[in-house]
Write a sequence for this structure.
């Protein structure tokens, strides 16, 4: 199972890249929340970020427990400042 | 296209001309957001170019989210036409960032819809602003008032 993870704005700078391909660990059903917890191990600097928002397949996330499927795209970013 | 994401500038007059072509149009309401001066001191003309804003967005999601905002608006109010233009890239102080224009048969619907759209754009359209002032740069923080305004709808 492979998912595409994108980082925007401050999080892109903190991580040092705009996207990664990621294989969630298979011992539990992955959700957006567990994926973020796992990539925080790889990118420890994300632990300092207080406000992380997310989108799953280009839809703003309302529930961090949304399950993640093969080929999904998750984006992590700081709170939006549009308009 | 009712929703446009572009790097280049836009013309309010042109959008209004498009909306008034619809014979049902009785009112057009528009909102334009500009880059306001975020520097601490008044810049002299030669230094003006050192201050600018960069707007980043999530290309695969941006149009989709703007269209979703338009759909939600149409469910709430009887509007004839909606135009949303949002810019990205490098912008200078006083530049236009965003245009929302709404037409309707009667003014009340257009007033409400226009405010609704801009309130949702602030929190739901995936744009992020970074201000550059000489050597210093900073990401614009989310404004709690904006979240409250959106939540009141």
């Amino acid at each position: 199972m492979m998912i595409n993870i994108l980082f925007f704005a401050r999080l892109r700078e903190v991580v040092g890249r705009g996207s990664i391909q990621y294989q969630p660990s298979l011992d539990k059903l992955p959700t957006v929340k567990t994926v973020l917890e796992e990539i925080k191990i790889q990118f420890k600097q994300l632990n300092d970020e207080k406000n992380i928002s997310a989108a799953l397949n280009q839809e703003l996330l309302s529930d961090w427990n949304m399950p993640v499927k093969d080929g999904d795209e998750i984006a992590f970013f700081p709170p939006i400042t549009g308009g | 296209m009712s929703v446009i994401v572009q790097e280049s500038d836009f013309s309010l007059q042109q959008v209004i001309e498009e909306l008034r072509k619809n014979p049902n149009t009785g009112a057009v309401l528009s909102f334009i957001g500009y880059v306001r001066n975020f520097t601490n001191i008044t810049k002299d003309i030669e230094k003006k170019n050192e201050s600018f804003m960069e707007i980043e967005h999530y290309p695969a999601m941006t149009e989709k989210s703007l269209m979703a905002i338009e759909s939600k608006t149409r469910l709430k109010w009887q509007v004839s036409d909606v135009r949303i233009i949002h810019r990205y890239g490098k912008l200078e102080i006083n530049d236009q960032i965003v245009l929302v224009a709404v037409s309707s048969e009667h003014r009340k619907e257009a007033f409400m819809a226009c405010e609704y759209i801009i309130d949702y754009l602030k929190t739901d359209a995936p744009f992020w602003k970074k201000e550059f002032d000489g050597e210093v740069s900073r990401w614009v923080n989310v404004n709690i008032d904006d979240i409250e305004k959106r939540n009141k709808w």
